[in-house]
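TICKET: design request
STATUS: open
ATTACHED STRUCTURE:
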């Protein structure tokens, strides 16, 4: 693949390509997402430069890009504990529910990562549990943002996996103009899925949602049996609006009283992260 990285194992296969766990020369674990070159039609240098500058505790860090003979390769940070999909599946199998606190914590980690991307004017475009990775201490990091922009819309559409279709907002599905609000739709679906441990819409309901002539009603979170707060329904309704204009912006969602406590915790944590980066940079300057 590349002499700088030693492949340890293959850990995944998605619509775009294969994912490998690798080690660099310092024996650090990293991940390479490999996309077959022959199908690769579009390459935006600019976008790669933007990805490299994104450094945030709730997003997977993009490290470098290189082209080998047959593939284009994206090197990134490794998240050790699988994906949110694995976690949801485990809970479903065991018929467990997330506690109110666990739900708020995981949800806010996702929302906070998304808030960062949106603040940089990056639309994720493929928010789904498979792209929400978990670290050793079960903190969340968003993955796979920007890739669809780098590989180009037509490539992305041709390789959209079924998994992505389920989280696709009505406007993206219908090829209408879209903006950051398409990520909010997926965020709402994930919120519902974590609360109820099932997807809110069946196949036929999805078809109904896509028909603008038919009425749409936001699904209901059954909070009573699950000891959740009635405000959970209000939170859901900020996100799962069919009309993107009616969906709330990520800043409004993060400021919702239900998530207040988590939001201030994340703000503090992020400030500490920035401080640590500055101290590390100063130390490195001192060394040189
Ligand atoms: N940085 C990473 N750290 C750990 N595991 C990862 C990482 N990136 C991807 N994976 C694993 O590899 C799997 C496949 O990733 P990939 O992004 O190719 O496919 P996907 O997310 O299932 O679908 P899509 O191609 O639509 O993104 C993921 O679901 C995840 O389990
Ligand atoms: Mg992915």
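STATUS: resolved
RESOLUTION: sequence designed for all positions
ATTACHED SEQUENCE:
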């Amino acid at each position: 693949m590349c002499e700088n990285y030693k492949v340890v194992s293959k850990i995944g296969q998605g619509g775009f390509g294969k994912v490998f766990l690798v080690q660099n020369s310092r024996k650090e674990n990293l991940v390479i997402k490999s996309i077959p070159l022959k199908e690769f039609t579009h390459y935006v240098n600019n976008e790669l430069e933007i990805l490299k500058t994104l450094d945030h505790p709730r997003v997977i860090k993009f490290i470098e890009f290189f082209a080998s003979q047959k593939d284009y390769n994206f090197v990134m940070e490794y998240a050790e504990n699988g994906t949110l999909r694995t976690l949801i599946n485990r809970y479903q199998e065991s018929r467990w529910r997330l506690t109110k606190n666990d739900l708020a914590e995981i949800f806010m980690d996702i929302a906070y990562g998304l808030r960062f991307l949106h603040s940089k004017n990056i639309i994720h475009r493929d928010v789904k549990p498979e792209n929400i990775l978990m670290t050793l201490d079960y903190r969340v990091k968003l993955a796979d943002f920007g890739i669809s922009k780098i590989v180009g819309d037509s490539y992305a559409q041709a390789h959209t996996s079924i998994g992505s279709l389920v989280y696709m907002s009505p406007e993206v599905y219908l090829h209408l103009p879209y903006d950051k609000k398409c990520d909010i739709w997926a965020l709402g679906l994930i919120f519902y899925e974590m609360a109820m441990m099932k997807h809110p819409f069946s196949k036929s309901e999805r078809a109904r949602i896509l028909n603008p002539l038919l009425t749409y009603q936001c699904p209901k979170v059954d909070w009573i049996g699950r000891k959740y707060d009635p405000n959970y329904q209000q939170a859901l309704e900020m996100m799962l609006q069919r009309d993107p204009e009616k969906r709330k912006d990520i800043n409004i969602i993060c400021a919702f009283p239900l998530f207040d406590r988590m939001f201030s915790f994340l703000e503090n944590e992020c400030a500490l992260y920035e401080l640590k980066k500055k101290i590390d940079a100063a130390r490195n300057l001192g060394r040189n």
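CLOSING REMARK: The longest strand covers residues 6-13. Residues 6-77 form a domain with the Phosphorylase Kinase; domain 1 fold (CATH 3.30.200.20).
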